[in-house]
Structures
1.
Amino acid sequence: MSRALKQAPWLIFLALLLIFALAPFEWMLVASLKPADEQLIRGNPWWPDSPYWANYTNLLGSHRFQHWLANTTLVMTSTLAISLVASLLAGYALAYLEVPFSRGIVVALFATYLLPQGVLFLPLVTMLSQLHLLNSPLALILTYPSLVIPFGTWVLWSFFRGLPRDLIDQARVEGARTGDILLKVVGPVAAPALAAVLLFGLAIVFNDYFYAFAFVSDESAQTLVAAVGSTSVDISDSGFIFAAVTIGVAPVALLCAFFADVYARGLGAGVID
Amino acid sequence: MIGVIAYPLGLAVWFSLTDAQVGESGHFIGLGNYDYLVHQGTYVDALRNTAVYTSLSTAIKAGLGLLMALALARTFPGRRVVYALLFLPFVFPVVIGTVAWYYLFSNVHGGINYLLLQAHLVPESIAWLGLGPLPMASLITVNVWHGTALFGVLLLAALRSVPADVLDAAVIDGARPVRRFMEVGLPYLSSALALGAVLSVVGTFGDFAIVHLLTGGGPANETTIVSTMAFQIALRDGALGVGTAAALSMVPVYLVVLVFVVRVAARQ
């Protein structure tokens, strides 16, 4: 058999898998190019006969869209910043400093990650309501890091464990302080693991619906993702919604998709090899 | 961590032992809520649905993910782009993806029915979200759409640790080497497979978005899973105590999963 022929079944499989993976995106793109009512009622839902660009130009003047974008950016950057710093510090401390029960803490952290959101959201709703934080992006900024940090710490801890200790010991002998070691020695080396945690956090924030839906119901305080979920039954806005998704979400997701390798290696660091 | 995890967890345990309603603290009633739940037909159904949804989704994702990894381990033009596009559903918000799938499955001018009708494969629209086993199959389809790539990328990373000759012998030729790969190559992938399985079980078991948006647990609670049931009891019906008890009843399964992870990690 020739090489090409041997490849064929695998390539056909990949082509089918690609169609399955991308079909909803194609549909969303088409939906964004049609008047609101048309996509869901008549015509070919897989092709726009005459692209309707008004959905996109309407976004420019839309306060709703601006709110969603601002909330998403605020929640996303705050969550990622808090989570990265906390995971780095905690992972470093657990791997290098003499922390009592460090092994137990690592297992507890992983267990925390496994805890379903469904268990925590009811008490959290009550707490946030008592703090008058419901319906504010702050509710999400306070709670999302709790979903990212445990796993992020675990990833960085596994990464640091694989590094030679000499690196830190030497810097310490030369009189560097912990802050300097973190910034100048450990930080740059840990960049791949940090990138994996970044992607992981981004996927968490992008994929959460439970918290976003339960904590924030006011449209002007919602993230783009939760807003789309909450208007899902309101078909009158499909053109607007999917234009917003195409501009506000798709580019970030596509960019992240090209870093699949970083994600896999960072995630698997502690387990694979 | 204590403020957003330990304290709420403690609070959850307390709620589940009281007759609390939304907005008012209740009285201690012991295990009354749990007793109430296990005598509810809908709760037993939800448990069964959760088990079916989680196990089938995870098994299909693992299978497709393994094939995806094996296919992507080969070299061909455009491989990087294909790799990224296959990973896209995993990093794309599942909420938005599910809304799109909702319209693909719709029996009123839905995307899938449109294609089937145009090709004259079916005489009339199929109610994908309507009857019998189809709604659950639809949920699993969306879950698989979202999560296959996680297995794919983890397994691909692990494939690199398989010695080249094992891989060559196993992957490139026909059927028999495939079986040989299962025997020789698969052990190298076991830890990646375990990690993928844990992440998938956690994600699917606690899933809320897909079920809530696609079927809302319907028709007639046939696709209700424990997490959507907890949400509905607590926030729609206002029975905070019962809802929290339903949510907490998921924890034993998580402990089993955790033990499994630690075992696999310890074996390495």
Note: Chain B touches chain A through 92 residues (CB under 8 Å).
2.
Amino acid sequence: MAGTRIGRDPAGGDVAVTTTEQALTAAFREEAGRLAASLVRVLGDFAVAEEVVQDCLLAAWERWRVDGIPDNPAGWLWTTARRRALDVARRDSRYQAKLAILAASGCTHDAAQRDDDRLALIFTCCHPALSSETQVALTLRTVCGLSPRQIASAFLASEHAIAQRLTRARRKIAMAAIPYRVPDADHLAERLAAVLAVIYLMFNEGYLTSSGDDPQRRDLTEDAEWLAALLADLMPAEPEVLGLLALIRLHRARATTRFDREGQLVLLADQDRALWDHAAIAGAADLVVRASRMRRPGPYQLQAAIVACHAEAPAWEDTDWPQILLLYDALLDYLPSPVVALHRAIAHGQVTGPGDALADLDALGGALDSYHLFHATRAHLLRELGRLAEARRADERALGLTANPAERALLEQRLCRTSAPAEQTKPA
Amino acid sequence: MKYVLLFCGTDEDARAFAALSEVELKERYAQVGRWFAANRSRIGATQQLQGPETATSVRFGQDGAAMVTDGPFLEGKEQIGGYAEIEVSDLDEALEMAKTWPGRGSVEIRPVVTSR
């Protein structure tokens, strides 16, 4: 992107603007967090640091649209940010003491310091004293440089609500003195788990709300992958970070086949595997292996290994179910949740038959009674066992429990198909 | 940074406390004593409060008139049983202290307003 001159050709205006926006988005995401991190360290104030970053991004947006993106966009942003931070420090007596640090180029290009700053920023945004929704919004805002409007659109929330949430968060960080640093060794595991949870939540939000029909909406799965990759860069010796990065990449590598052209959900068994990104899958599988060599297993590594089993199978029939069943058994030790048990039951059924899986599910019973996939899975197993009337009732339960249009369509289709002969015998 | 730790408990916590045997009660007080001793350098004023049934509240209506009522402000789940002012470097240090509080129930950590 460096050196590209844009916006001068009226005929190609639209294309040029899109290119600029894409280039700007990439540059902003890369630089906004770095900028914010160093400024927070120097100024010790979240709100001011973010304001300065926002100013710079706005200035860059105005300027670069006219002049084109400079050869060194990072350098341009840094110089501008430093100048504005100095202005703020001169204006406000609270920052007088910081003036000297800023003037002596506190926002350095020292790569190691900047990495430390960014890592500290991530841990602050994901501090357990903030609610998980706030952690996600603040991370997107501060580390990824998304605007409140972009965050709001990704979460289908109002911009006002997101802006308020961010303001409250910054106030709490300042008032309650939430520290800005990477936790010490005693607390690192626990705090890292919170950071990974935020990235995974961000990914899931993007994954579940995407349907490929709205190209204008921010793709949070991309932001989550970027963050996980950043964290893997900053903490290369943490196997769970690699596990989460692999998990996200394995899902994203197959995202295009989740929906058909009409936006209908396509089950894994029916997806066209030729369309998957096999290079990305191989890369992610390598990450899983690299993580496993560190001999500190964890839930993200296990989930990535399970998804890798699916992604690397040339066809549904080739799926290595015994391996998947073993991995689910291990995963249950870390995440003893009924939902994990449900997935384990499905794998169990594939290994020893639908009767066993149904018995597993019925043993779970009550815990998942209001979860649509529990009933949808039961319906599938009952149908395999030839218990059609029960299957139909289970599908109807599932339909009553989900509002997701793609899932509803799939269930309705299934109900329609299985009941068609019976319905036709009735008089119209 | 100055914070106040508010030691709270639900009715259930209060019942569990009341049900402690004499030996258990002695042990609990010993634990609490050790916690205060271990954190002495960080603790300022601290008090245990009498139970919420001894509380009297003064509320001000829209017209500014004072109204006296029997009972605590918050009828309901959590009651404040005591407090300690602490001086620590940041929220993480306050959290460390609160997490080792042996008195059970819950601990609310509130930063204190300081003049700039």
Note: The interface with chain A takes residues 1, 3, 89-92, 95, 109, 111, 116 of chain B (CB under 8 Å).
